[in-house]
Design a protein that fits this description.
Elements (H helix, E strand, L loop, with lengths): L5 E2 L18 E7 L6 H8 L5 E6 L6 H6 L5 E3 L6 H10 L5 E4 L4 E2 L2 H13 L6 E7 L12 E9 L6 E2 L5 E2 L4 E11 L6 H13 L6 H14 L2 H15 L6 H17 L3 H14 L3 H13 L3 H14 L11 H13 L3 H17 L2
Helix pairs in contact: 5-6, 5-7, 6-8, 7-8, 8-9, 8-10, 10-11, 10-12, 11-12, 12-13
Amino acid sequence: MQLNRKRCSRFFGAASGGAREEMITISLCMIVKNEEKILKRCLDSVADLVDEIIIADTGSTDATRAIAAQYTEHVYDYTWIDDFSAARNDVFSKATKEYIYSADADEVLSPENRDRFRLLKETLLPEIEIVQMKYANQLQFGTVYNFDEEYRPKLFKRKRDFVWEGPIHETVRLEPVVYDSDIVITHLQEESHAKRDLANFRRHWESGYRLPKRLLGLYARELLLAGDEEDLVDAAGAFMDAAADNGRDSEEMAQSCCVVAKAARLVKDTVNFFKYTSKVIAEEACSEICCEMGHFYEEEGDWEEAAIWYYNAVYETQPILALQSGGKESLEGLIRCYEALECPEQAEIYREELQKREGASI
């Protein structure tokens, strides 16, 4: 996750002339529902590192609430309104410590990262307002992720100090001071949440909510990475609306067209397939659209044309949502095309390229 922020190049107290007089205090804030299988694992890995645990239960029908009560008296019921932000804001409002650590039940801190967390707590400088931690094992049940490990904001200063900056035309600093830590949180999902997330996106669209740019992009990415044919067809209307929305920018339009084009190909709607692929190609082609063109011509048995588009997806364009469209997915398409064309040498070239890329990502 990218943050617009002022970075802090140091965070240890010793870097400013000595250790902190007191370590920071931390409230652990969580929202949970039916997490009896994994909640104890999460809390065992972090409970002794924080000073307060606050858990909002959004309607569990299993033993989740009883398990949470073993760790804290601050367990309360929250009426779910289909809004994760509202739930997190509510649980954050109940925190009383200096910093808030936001965790999900399927997260775990390993012994090594527990030590890193403890060191961070002992040495964090007061000017740090957000600490990012690496979120690992994201691709096990791929939804909106292109990378197995990436930074996420996880620790937040509860009360922000406003600071004036600039010797003249002074202004209040609005961007947070963020530290990218070396702490790695292991994400251990029990199952994919894609169906739940996609249904939630669709409900908000159907209610008339205009998805902002960030959520529109996440919806599109989750559909391309984890959606099935039913999910894509169900979402097509939302992305047709977005593509026709004059208030959307070119990036949003291209992302929307990628979703509609894939949905159209899957249901053999050739008119809409070429309508929405053409919208992107006329501006600036991306790997996703070229890959879809490759799939289309492969399904038609036109192996030469399919190979051209798969090649363009890998080597002539860049992905805007799903990295695999400019890598594994299209390279596998090239291999299939050249095998069908009885060109084993060419197929082997792309097989080696695929192996090289997969090896580089390990």
